[in-house]
């Protein structure tokens, strides 16, 4: 649900979370019980800093500047076959 900002004449502003389309033009101030008018504010649709934006930025950067791998991944042994199953019947299957 969106956050609506209200500005009281006597005190500071406050925010209310209301369903879309149900925000009144005038609300009751929680501090002084006076009338507070709804403020028109910019919607918070920025993706900057979010994990989605970081993923998109990394994908775009790797298209032009792919990172160079200097060594094998740590913890991965090379030269030995890795067993994926412990079932002895799988040992009889043909190997590529
Ligand atoms: Zn007030």
TrEMBL record:
Coiled coil: none annotated. It comes from the Bacteria. Residues 78-89 have a biased composition (Polar residues). Pfam families: Zn_ribbon_8. Residues 1-41 form the Putative regulatory protein FmdB zinc ribbon domain. Residues 64-96 are annotated as: Disordered. InterPro entries: Regulatory_FmdB_Zinc_ribbon. This is Zinc ribbon domain-containing protein. It comes from Cryobacterium breve.
């Amino acid at each position: 649900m969106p956050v609506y900002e209200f500005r009281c004449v006597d005190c500071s502003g406050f925010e209310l979370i209301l369903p879309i389309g149900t925000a009144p033009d005038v609300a009751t101030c929680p501090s002084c019980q006076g009338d507070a008018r709804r403020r028109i504010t910019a919607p918070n649709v920025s993706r900057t800093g979010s994990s989605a934006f970081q993923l998109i930025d990394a994908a775009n950067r790797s298209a032009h500047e792919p990172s160079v791998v200097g060594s094998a991944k740590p913890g991965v042994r090379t030269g030995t076959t890795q067993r994926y199953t412990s079932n002895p019947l799988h040992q009889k299957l043909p190997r590529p």
